[in-house]
Specification:
Number of strands: 19
Number of helices: 14
Radius of gyration: 21 Å
CATH topology of the domain at 309-413: Rossmann fold
Structural class: alpha/beta
CATH architecture of the domain at 309-413: 3-Layer(aba) Sandwich
Shape: globular
């Protein structure tokens, strides 16, 4: 074990020790650990990426925990650079305001608030807002832009401090972060202590049903400690003095779950969506370890197909680049053995990543202008959840004879 990593021995939701390994992926460096040219000579530490199933509550999770400061204090992902996500968060805020009608001017707190994109829409709707995020530069910039943001990790202690200084919250949100936290129990203790009696806790996470059905194995990386399904969450919230009142499927990240919880006995009726989701999960067999072991076989089949395609194109002398450098690309490239010998460069629109090199594989990340100037024959869309947007914006590449390769959920040449 390294100083930056430890392996837990109990389920993150129920504390059970009855854990079965169901998927073993290639060890990788942290998925967002892009490096500058000056560090190319340094070997990047890789950590195990093994997925476990809890035999007692059916929760699916990583037990290998990389120090959160290593993963998040100098983060390079910001929501505001993606028009798709800006629109998603605008609709999300409108949904919460309409459905739960929080008290005007009440507090909305966002855990893992990133650049404050979601909170800005609550602010426009007349709510007081407060963000919490561990990324130093991003939280300072959000505050400067008028979204007050505390730099740190949320838990029971910070929740109590905020309740004392700002009052109870009408709405607490946590998006693409409720799967990132090792001490989920402590976070929910903090939420329970901070939530107003009629308040709601709204979170979005990658949904195990979508991960399983569409072989979205590349959403498995060290930041994502949990692969949530509704059955285990119902039991977890009940044990924490809260109740899950909605479990809504949304399209972001290839398929996510929007869960909504309240204090036990709160004013909102439990919607039909909760029981419906549990029924779908049981029908798929996601409450059994054997089902997830079959998932591992599907991943290997997909990898063989993609690898064979890229190797045959290289053998024909084709130039291959990639489009998009999301965190999930690290898992895909390591597990399928796709390195600089197959992919020459990666185009990414984020200025925070341009000029850097991909985690571990050290493939250069460039702007679209520089990437298209290299005249690639094929571009592998690593940000496959935005494939249609990327293809639509780059018609000229296809008109000049270029082709896109979409690797997931099935290998497709466009």
């Amino acid at each position: 074990m390294s100083a930056q990593h430890h392996r837990r021995s109990t389920c993150r939701l129920c504390g059970s020790r009855h854990l079965t390994e169901v998927v073993r992926l290639a060890p990788t460096p942290p998925a967002n650990a892009f490096v500058p040219r000056s560090e190319l000579g340094k070997e990047q530490e890789r950590f195990p990426l093994d997925v476990f199933f809890c035999e007692d509550c059916a929760h699916v999770q990583l037990l290998d925990v990389v120090d959160a400061r290593v993963l998040f204090e100098h983060y390079v992902y910001v929501s505001g650079t993606s028009p798709v996500f800006v629109k998603h968060f605008e609709d999300y805020a409108a949904f919460v305001m309409e459905r739960f009608k929080p008290v005007a001017g009440g507090l909305v707190l966002d855990i893992g608030s990133n650049d404050g994109t979601l909170l800005s829409f609550f602010q426009k709707a007349g709510m007081r807002v407060l963000g919490i995020d561990p990324a130093q530069e991003i939280s300072a910039e959000a505050t400067a832009r008028g979204i007050p943001t505390l730099c740190g990790f949320f838990g029971a202690d910070l929740g109590a401090e905020i309740a004392a200084s700002h009052g109870k919250a009408q709405v607490i949100t946590a998006n693409n972060v409720f799967a990132h936290i090792d001490d989920l129990s402590g976070v929910v203790d903090g939420v329970r202590g901070l939530l107003a009696p009629s308040g709601v806790f709204v979170f979005e996470v990658s949904y195990l049903v979508d991960v399983f059905e569409n072989t979205l194995f590349d959403t498995i990386y060290h930041e994502h400690l949990d692969y949530h399904s509704v059955g285990p969450l119902v039991r977890f919230f009940a044990a924490k003095g809260m109740e899950l009142v909605e479990a809504i499927r949304v399209g972001s990240h290839g398929g996510s779950l929007r869960g909504i919880a309240q204090l036990k006995g709160g004013p909102h009726a439990v919607g039909a969506s909760v029981a419906e989701a549990v029924a779908v999960e049981e029908k798929l067999g996601l409450d059994k370890a054997a089902t997830l072991s079959k998932f591992a076989a599907d991943i290997e089949a997909l990898g063989s197909e993609l690898n064979a395609l890229l190797k045959s194109l290289k053998a024909e002398g084709k130039r291959i680049g990639a489009f998009g450098a999301p965190a999930k690309a690290t898992t895909l490239m390591y597990h399928f053995g796709i390195g600089p010998e197959l992919v020459d460069f990666i185009i990414d629109d984020s200025p925070l990543k341009q000029g850097l090199y991909s985690p571990g594989m050290h493939i250069p990340v460039v702007s679209s202008t520089d990437g298209f100037a290299k005249k690639p024959d094929y571009l592998v869309i690593l940000a496959w959840n935005f494939a249609q947007v990327i293809i639509g914006k780059n018609v000229a590449f296809q008109e000049s004879g270029g082709k896109f390769i979409i690797p997931i959920p099935k290998v497709e040449v466009v």
